[in-house]
Amino acid sequence: MKIDAINLAIIKHLKDGRTSFKTIADDLGLAEGTIRGRVKKLRQEGVLEIAGMVDPECIPDRHVVMAGIKLKSMNLVDVGEEFSTLRGVASVCVVTGRFDLIITIMLTRGFGILEFYTEEVAKVDGVRSVETFVVYKSFNLRVPMIH
């Protein structure tokens, strides 16, 4: 999908997710239907998602862990996609450096790190090693409310 200047302007207006299509249209000098159609197309193409994101430190009984994953093969994208479907996973990134994937996991009182590794990661073939990073304090971290 082509991301032109208008699409970028629409995305910037939707930064807080609450700006009306009419307000965006008025500001950009376009018809409200044009904005609505472009947002629909951006969402269909997977470019834009409008969702409530939360600071995990404010949600009771939830905490964030990040993990660096080393794989046995170079099938990074397929394994990354598989990790993205696991319970508790908020994000997966294919990266350079000493890890192949960096994942962000949202844990709860009944679903901790042990359950994540034994019940979820155990399903994924080709994991060589995992290194866990407990987030004590974050700045600007927002995750979708999952579980």
Short characterization:
By secondary structure, this protein is of the alpha+beta class. The chain is built from five helices and six strands; from the N terminus they run H-H-H-E-E-H-E-E-H-E-E. The strands form two sheets. A four-stranded antiparallel beta sheet has the order 3-4-2-5, covered by helices on one side. The chain has a two-stranded antiparallel sheet with strand order 1-6.
Folded structure, characterized:
It is a single chain. This protein is an alpha+beta fold and 147 residues long. It has 2 domains: 40 residues, Arc Repressor Mutant, subunit A, CATH 1.10.10; 91 residues, Lrp/AsnC effector binding domain/regulation of amino acid metabolism (RAM) domain (Alpha-Beta Plaits, 2-Layer Sandwich), CATH 3.30.70.920. It is 32% helix and 24% strand. The protein contains 5 helices and 6 strands. The protein has a 4-stranded antiparallel β-sheet, covered by helices on one side. It has a two-stranded antiparallel ribbon with strand order 1-6. Helix 2 crosses helix 3. The longest helix has 13 residues. The two termini are 31 Å apart.
List the helices and strands and how they pair.
Blueprint: H1 5-13, H2 21-28, H3 32-44, E1 53-54, E2 62-71, H4 76-84, E3 89-94, E4 101-108, H5 113-120, E5 127-134, E6 143-144
Antiparallel strand pairs: 1-6, 2-4, 2-5, 3-4
